[in-house]
Amino acid sequence: MKKIIVAIDGYSSCGKSTIAKALAKYAGYMYVDTGAMYRAVALYMLQHGITEESDIVEALKDVQVGFALQADGSQHTTLNGEDVEGQIRTLEVGNRASQVSQIKEVRAFLVRQQQAMGEAKGIVMDGRDIGTVVFPQAELKLFLTARPEVRAQRRYDELVGKGEHPDYEEVMRDVNDRDYRDTHRAESPLRQATDSVVVDNSDMTREEQMAHIYGLFDKLTT
User: Fold this and answer.
1) Is the Cβ–Cβ distance between 159 and 171 less than 8 Å?
2) Edge-to-edge strand ranges of the sheet holding 197-200
3) pLDDT for position 73
4) According to the model, what pLDDT value does residue 188 have?
5) Is pLDDT at 210 greater than 90 in this prediction?
């Protein structure tokens, strides 16, 4: 079975990470959550009160983002050696990450790391510009989407499940704001690669979408 690169792009709260993790496990591939990398950078800037773009760029030299394999096979994001998986999943950090990701130098900083991770193939990577910028040569490109109200409800339920008390309308605004920033930023905007397969999972069960995606993967690797 030949190894390939799987690039998964799409809007926020489409289940990109969940799908990517499941596919990586199915294929025996390495999984990289690029969104977590941007969230880790955003967390560092929040922790240190760094807001100006020039200061953010300067601070990148002090940022090391990595992944630590857990006993159950999952991966936790690390920031300068510290496990920050829980800290990076808040609405505040997610919103800040969407802003930080618009900075050209931040994207270049993380894209270099992401491309190095995929040199040997056998990797599943999800984000906003994986199939268009990071791995335009990826053999399988997926573009995930869902209706905004569906994605807002998923995000709301996720936050509630973590013990938070979000306001649905605020979550809905955040989804729309992130969509706008992701698709209108000057540097590597979110867009569908011409050779990607669109998966609209608004009305699909997890089992239905994974069966579809596993089938696409198997056709390319067997």
Assistant:
1) yes
2) 30-33, 123-127, 5-10, 140-145, 197-200
3) 77
4) 83
5) yes
**What's the CA dihedral at 69, 75, 79, 84 to 10 degrees?**
-120
Tokens 């609405």 locate to 91
Task: Decide if pLDDT at 200 tops 90.
Answer: yes
| pTM, 2 dp | 0.81
Please, which contacts does 19-23 make with residues 24 or more away whose CB atoms are closer than 8 Å?
19/126, 19/142, 19/144, 19/209, 19/210, 19/213, 20/124, 20/125, 20/126, 21/74, 21/124, 22/210, 23/124, 23/210, 23/213, 23/214, 23/217
Is 125 within 8 Å of 6 (Cβ atoms)?
yes
Grade residue 75 by pLDDT with cuts at 50, 70 and 90. confident
